[in-house]
Amino acid sequence: MEKVKIGFIGCGGNARGHMRSLSRNNDVTFIAFTDIDLSKAKKCAEEYGGRAYSDYHQMLKNEDLDIVFISLPPFAHSDEVMVAAEHGVNIYIEKPIALDLNLAKEMQRAVEKYGVKSQVGYQLRFSLAAEKAKKLIESGELGKVLLVTGKYWCRFIRRDWWLDISKSGGQVVEQSTHLYDILRWLAGDVERVYSEMDRLFYVNEPNMTIEDVSSVVLRFKSGAVGSVTATIAAVPRYWWVKWNIVGSDATLESEEANRLKIYRSSTDPLKIEEYAEIGRDLIFLNERNLIEAVKNDLETRTPISEGVKTLELTLAVMKSAREGKVIYL
Asked: Is the dihedral angle over the CA atoms 173, 179, 182, 188 positive or is it negative?
């Protein structure tokens, strides 16, 4: 396979970011673009080459594609994954993959039935901190995972569908899902959750139905205990996605995606190691992982089955807050 043939469903800002990133690849060619606003699809086709559609069913039927990028808001997902899989087209889909767990599982079944590759847009799995932590945990150097904590703090608001919980799912489901995915990838699946959340800061924002603060307690299947806090009311122009993992032999601290500090508490004296990398493009690496998987018949780092598990976790967090009780996954 010399050139990987790419199509898009959705031509908004998220898709445009992927187009710019993909255009850096010499082994990629753009074939077709679909958007319900045909003018957007035509603009992308004019810029990158290819044909424009307003109906993705027609695009998937007419075009010979290797990968389709599904760049739609959470509420807009319907049968794109199923139709693409049926046509033998590999899939890149943004997170969250859906707002309904049944739809997400239907997506997974289609991908597995037709044997196509899939990748979910959880690019933090390609961060230096996450990669090094994963190796330390899998090698046993961290020892037994005991405690997992994380925070997703920013000052952020979008005055569109994002404010409507029925369309975005809320901050936990649509935004801090990145953090939940990383912690689940590193520490394993979660057994139960209890959460508290509210809207305390944006109290005068009309039509806003999502939370702006949340605090969640997690119990992992491994026995580890965890906690995650999230807010869109924190420090302006600062975006904190931070996590710590305490193991029996070492403790990990990540203050930035591409920075990790390791405290090797099993040594005497205490040994501290720091790792950092500047300029690592996580979205590019996520895309390349799928491209290489398609070209060389490899597994992706974040197949759609992983997107289902992370969605199940964040939906459980929301359910716990609504019902005021512990939710078992």
From this structure: negative
Across the strands, what pairs with 254?
A: 243
Distant-in-sequence, close-in-space partners of 9: CB < 8 Å, separation ≥ 6 = 34, 56, 59, 68, 69, 70, 71, 72, 80
Phi then psi for residue 324, to 5 deg, are 65, 35
> Is pLDDT above 70 for 1?
no
d(Cα 319, Cα 95) in Å, to the nearest integer?
Answer: 19
pLDDT tens digits, one per residue of 209-257: 999 999 999 999 999 999 999 999 999 999 999 999 999 999 999 999 9
The pTM of this model reads: 0.97
Domains, in order of start, for the chain: 4-121+284-301 (3.40.50.720), 124-278+311-328 (3.30.360.10)
Tokens for 139, please give them.
């090698």
Structure token pair of residue 217: 């307690």
Other C-beta atoms within 10 Å of 221: how many? 12
Q: How far apart are CA 199 and CA 233, in angstroms?
A: 10
Query: Three-state SS string across the chain, please?
Result: CCCEEEEEECCCHHHHHHHHHHCCCCCEEEEEEECCCHHHHHHHHHHHCCEEECCHHHHHHHCCCCEEEECCCHHHCCCHHHHHHHCCCEEEECCCCCCCHHHHHHHHHHHHHHCCCEEECCHHHHCHHHHHHHHHHHHCCCCCEEEEEEEEEEECCCCCHHHCHHHHCCHHHHCCHHHHHHHHHHHCCEEEEEEEEECCCCCCCCCCCCCCEEEEEEEECCCCEEEEEEECECCCCCEEEEEEEEECCCEEEEEECCEEEEEECCCCCCEEEEEECCCCCHHHHHHHHHHHHHHHCCCCCCCHHHHHHHHHHHHHHHHHHHHCCCEEC
